[in-house]
Automatic annotation (TrEMBL):
Source organism of this protein record: Prevotella illustrans
Recorded superkingdom: Bacteria
Name this polypeptide is given: Uncharacterized protein
Length: 71
């Protein structure tokens, strides 16, 4: 255990403990908006169908779920 004293705050860290990130099953097929870099909404599709839909769009960079995706 590491104690860090930055008065008036005290932080306690436990080393050796791991955590996982899990995606809830019910949101894995949620509807996701697709935007152009100019902020124009192109479509809203299921998360599982995003890459199939991107193939139908003109080449460019799109924002999908907050991430830039190149086509």
């Amino acid at each position: 255990m590491i104690l860090v004293n930055l008065s008036p705050l005290i932080f306690c860290f436990t080393i050796g403990q791991t955590t996982d990130i899990h995606v809830p099953a019910d949101v894995s097929d949620a509807m996701v908006p697709i935007y152009t870099l100019r902020g124009m909404k192109v479509a809203t599709v299921k998360r599982s169908e995003v890459f199939q839909y991107l193939q139908t769009l003109p080449h460019g960079i799109y924002i999908v779920d907050g991430k830039k995706i190149g086509r």
